[in-house]
Amino acid sequence: WTQAPCSSKNYSARIPSLHRCGAAQRMNFSASRFQNQPPERGSFPLDHDRACTPLRDEFLACLKAEGNEHVACRALSERYLACRMDKNLMARDAMENI
Q1: What is the structure's pLDDT at 46?
Q2: How high is the pLDDT of residue 36?
Q3: Average pLDDT for runs of 10 along the chain of length 98
Q4: What is the pLDDT of residue 35?
Q5: Helix, strand, coil % (nearest 5) of the chain?
Q6: How much is the pLDDT for 6?
Q7: CA-to-CA distance for 50 and 79, rounded, in angstroms?
């Protein structure tokens, strides 16, 4: 298939708009590939033993009840993160840094 030159008389309803005047050739998606980057604070292992699941569920219920206003659920968030740090599910860090 060869593309017809771009001119007003070569336009037709049968040619999809992306193929008119080389638009498909100009859409170079490979040039804008994203680079994967590791998380800023490293990986966070899953809680396979569900040691902190009750705290997580309590925090998520609070978020839902408060319309996703995280400030209202800060204490629950700190308890959940402390549990994860205590169980070595994340690196220990001061709450001010998290």
Answers
A1: 87
A2: 73
A3: 53 53 56 66 79 95 95 95 92 88
A4: 74
A5: 50, 0, 50
A6: 55
A7: 15
Report the distance separating Cα 48 and Cα 46, nearest Å. Answer: 6
Burial of 59 (0-12, 13-18, 19+ CB in 10 A): buried
The DSSP-derived string for 1-23 is --PPP--GGG--TTS-GGGGGGH
As given in the structure block, the two tokens for residue 21 are 């005047």
Is 56 exposed, middle or buried, given 0-12, 13-18 or 19+ CB atoms closer than 10 A? middle
Nearest to 87 by CA among 43, 46, 57: 46
What is the 8-class DSSP label of residue 38?
-
List of residues 6+ apart from 93 with CB closer than 8 A:
41, 85
Task: Name the DSSP letter for residue 96.
Answer: G
- Output the pLDDT for position 78: 95
Rounded Cα distance, 63 and 61, in Å: 5
